[in-house]
Please model this.
Amino acid sequence: MAEKKFSKNILCIGAGYVGGPTMAVIAAKCPHYKVTIVDINAEKIRQWQTDDLPIYEPGLLDIVKQARGRNLFFSTEIETNITDADIIFVSVNTPTKNFGEGAGKSADLQYWEKTARTILKASKSDKIIVEKSTLPVRTASAMERIVNSNDSGVHFEVVSNPEFLAEGTAIMDLEQPDRVLIGSRETDSGRKARQEIVDIYANWVPRERIITSNIWSSELSKLVANAFLAQRISSINSISALCEKTEADISEVAYAIGMDSRIGSKFLNASVGFGGSCFKKDILNLVYIAESYGLREVAEYWENVIKINEYQENRFVRKMIAAMFNTIAGKRIALFGFAFKADTGDTREAPAITVTRKLVEEHAQVVITDPQALPNAKKDLEDILDRVEFEPDPYKAALGTHALGILTEWDIYRTLDYRRIYDNMIKPAFIFDGRNILDHDKLFEIGFNVYPIGKPAQSHI
Ligand SMILES: NC(=O)c1ccc[n+]([C@@H]2O[C@H](COP(=O)([O-])OP(=O)(O)OC[C@H]3O[C@@H](n4cnc5c(N)ncnc54)[C@H](O)[C@@H]3O)[C@@H](O)[C@H]2O)c1
Model:
């Protein structure tokens, strides 16, 4: 009976960083739809039903609370919810494959395929399946072949609707997206399914921001968007190395080029490197696809974006070692920030992982502080837990250290009392600002030896 209250039954498979926030916003904006999120991870589903959500994302709890229990539901009952759904969004993880053919590059589609088979098994009526996960171009055709391999007369239409949200600003990105992209087959049933998805977003997104395309363009656009964003970071980071050699200042260069409207000012902050679960994985995926079509030059071009990122992370550690008299063995170093970016607890592919491991290899004693990411940091470093310490309070983390490394651009690190921190450090005290967020002149005045990215170092030694 309860079902009749709702005009559509929407299901999302995968309650992670994408599935959770995306569906919470759809439910909050569309009280006339029933939105259910399912996951194989029972603990995650339990947490989604509490105020201690499984992910940290500003504004998320408020949105979840608006809709939870009204038209937003969380469940581990995957098959029954598939049976009841009209539209199924799939936002399971699609990590880089780490075994067999394509290992280290291609997407591991095992979770995706398992989901397709579960959908097929549990469906008794026609459904629209929406690819929300980021997938290699042409995955929809494999999905179609699996789900339409039935003789029960049930028809599945596969639509691509990649997600462009950024962690840390996910709610804003979902409420006011630059664009929503929906791709389908250019058949009558494909266009009809596409329109159904357009209708969902049209509840709050201006129509001109909802763009439609053929399904392959939609799948490929997501990979290309991430590749272009990461490429900008690697481009500015490559120039930061040149700045450090020439006394040019990367912030001044970025500002000057960013004023050119053809270039634009976003994504031009030099740093220790990009992280996150998507950029590296999606570029590797693009590289693998290009290689598999024999486009070697295209593959090499994009692979270099990742190589520059690795170079930048390694360069950061080399700079620390060189500045600290070529040895950091036995020295205590505090890392401020472990999340891959501010306003998230996500540490997947965070530069802090590489930096910590390299510092530990050099026998440094590493103390990690972060306002949200310490639980994930402990998991990432579980094989070296005896070599690192975790301390939520940055002042305590800095006690008795030789150096600080700023690895995440959390706002709280901009306004700490660095004089107090300096007073409690071993001298000479070093600060390596891997995000260029601090006032370097002021730190130098306090007494720090200051090493930013892409700017001349200021040293008292
Ligand atoms: N994280 C981002 O910022 C972001 C942004 C845009 C797109 N994406 C893409 O969205 C997809 C999901 O990313 P994420 O960050 O949300 O991943 P995630 O790991 O946070 O969430 C995926 C969830 O899917 C669940 N799952 C896996 N197999 C399942 C199955 N068979 N049945 C039910 N649940 C299953 C997992 O338990 C997990 O909770 C990926 O393809 C990613 O590339 C991510």
About this structure: The domain at 214-461 is CATH 3.40.50.720 (Rossmann fold). The CA atoms of residues 136 and 285 lie 7 Å apart. Residues 13-19, 38-41, 44, 78, 91-94, 111, 114-115, 133-134, 163, 165, 167, 277-278 surround nicotinamide-adenine-dinucleotide (CB under 6 Å).
